[in-house]
Specification:
There is one protein chain. This protein has 400 residues and is an alpha+beta fold. It has helices at 26-34, 69-76, 109-119, 124-138, 153-166, 183-199, 210-216, 234-247, 380-383; strands spanning 5-19, 40-54, 58-62, 84-89, 93-96, 171-175, 202-206, 219-224, 227-232, 263-270, 275-276, 282-290, 295-304, 309-314, 321-322, 325-333, 341-351, 356-360, 367-370, 395-398. Strands 11, 13, 14, 15, 17, 18 and 19 form a seven-stranded mixed beta sheet that branches. The radius of gyration is 27 Å and the shape is globular.
Length: 400
């Protein structure tokens, strides 16, 4: 392994055996074995995972629940052994997979620090050298001789997290621990992560917070169904994760297909990329079959998925057509004044009496992820999405 590589994950696969039948008889077990009945199924959690973490990287691992992230961390931490492949580590690893694991409520805060340090592989002398930093960061000077069971939940979290990040290891692994403690402690943790990012120390972070991935990480990997989907640039990985989640998210409980014999084969196709910046136009194509000699027009809305409100809509009559046959129209508009936001396109076909006669259900309509890259990470006001409607600025083109 190169001297510059801290962690190398090389074609790692992992599966678990899930029992399908219980047998108390040795005879039955042997008979089943000769018949080829294993008595279990294999659940493949990781499938040929490979990536490298260089020394000094702040590396993000993201993926939906059940994607295999935690299993991968336990393999890197040598808690699990992979069925195939291997993980090579260069340096002392401090793994913090769950807050407070290994803490004993009957021991004092001080005793828990030393016990947890021992579990992480540090000697008493090494914990002695780190002890003051741990207590200073946790801000629990007056409570270290009290039993842990007398701590509030927030105090326990602060102590556990402080032990993890102040342990002097070469590689730090953190799993879903960015939202610990109160607001003041979170700001302190943020400052620590920014310092660690600049210090050249290696960190592996597992999180569902894509803003954290973009803010702290210089590299990232997206795992989906036990496979590597995207690896490399953290913005690209975070945007793909956000888009995948938005694509599987319903806008409302009204996600139904309105069927009508007058209109069939309604299709909505995005002509631009799904992930765009505010300076890029959005363009899409709508086509449908009219089976009677009637006038029809299209009304649509672009909806904020997270809040369920309209951001942009157009129900003008500029696209009205008459007669039967296949209708194909395109629309282009700009959402230049929005910040980071997940959007979904909802389309309806209406007749001359303004009655909706067809509707493209949101479960099958395009998802658009608008991503700002021109503002500072700590500018929270600029990262907030716009709350009002964007003035209509688009234009229809009829391609009958």
């Amino acid at each position: 392994m190169s001297n510059n590589i801290a962690v190398k994950v090389d074609h790692v696969s992992k599966y678990f055996k899930l029992p399908t039948e219980a047998s108390q008889s040795l005879r039955t077990t042997l008979v089943n074995r000769f018949k080829g009945i294993k008595g279990y199924t294999e659940q493949h959690v990781l499938k040929d995972i490979s990536f490298e973490v260089e020394k000094g990287d702040f590396y993000g691992i993201v993926g939906r629940n059940g994607s295999g992230k935690s299993t991968l961390l336990k393999i890197i931490s040598e808690i699990y052994v992979p069925e195939k492949g291997k993980v090579t580590i260069d340096g002392k690893l401090v793994s913090f997979i769950e807050l407070g694991v290994g803490f004993n409520p009957e021991l004092t805060g001080r005793e828990n620090v030393y016990m947890n340090g021992a579990m992480l592989g540090f000697s008493t002398e090494e914990v002695d050298a780190m002890y003051d930093d741990i207590v200073d960061f946790a801000e629990l000077h007056d409570f270290m001789n009290q039993k842990l069971k007398n701590y509030s939940s927030g105090m326990q979290v602060r102590l556990a997290f402080s032990v993890a990040i102040k342990a002097q290891g070469d590689i730090l692994i953190l799993d879903e621990v960015l939202a610990v403690g109160d607001e003041a402690f979170q700001r302190k943790c943020n400052d620590y992560f920014m310092e660690r990012k600049q210090s050249g120390k290696t960190t592996i972070l597992v999180t569902h917070d894509m803003s954290a991935v973009k803010k702290y990480c210089n590299k990232a990997v997206l795992i989906e169904h036990g496979l590597v989907k995207v690896v490399g640039d953290p913005d690209e990985v975070a945007n793909q994760y956000s888009f995948d989640n938005a694509a599987g998210q319903k806008v409302s409980n009204d996600d139904v297909v309105v069927e009508n014999p007058k209109i069939t084969n309604l299709q909505v196709k995005l002509l631009t990329e799904n992930i765009i910046s505010p300076d890029q136009d959005i363009s899409f194509e709508i086509s449908y079959d009219v089976n009677e000699d009637i006038e029809t027009y299209i009304a649509f809305s672009i909806t904020d998925i997270d809040r369920g409100i309209w951001i942009y809509n157009d129900n003008s009559l500029d696209n009205k057509t008459s007669g039967s046959g296949r209708k194909t129209l395109t629309y282009k508009c700009s959402l230049a004044h929005l910040n980071d936001i997940k959007l979904k396109l909802q389309v309806s076909i209406r007749d001359n009496d303004d009655q909706m006669i067809a509707f493209a259900d949101s479960a099958n309509s395009p998802v658009i992820l608008l991503n700002r890259t021109d503002i500072e990470d700590d500018d929270k006001s600029a990262k907030d999405s716009a709350t009002g409607m964007v003035q209509r600025n688009g234009k229809w083109e009829i391609k009958e």
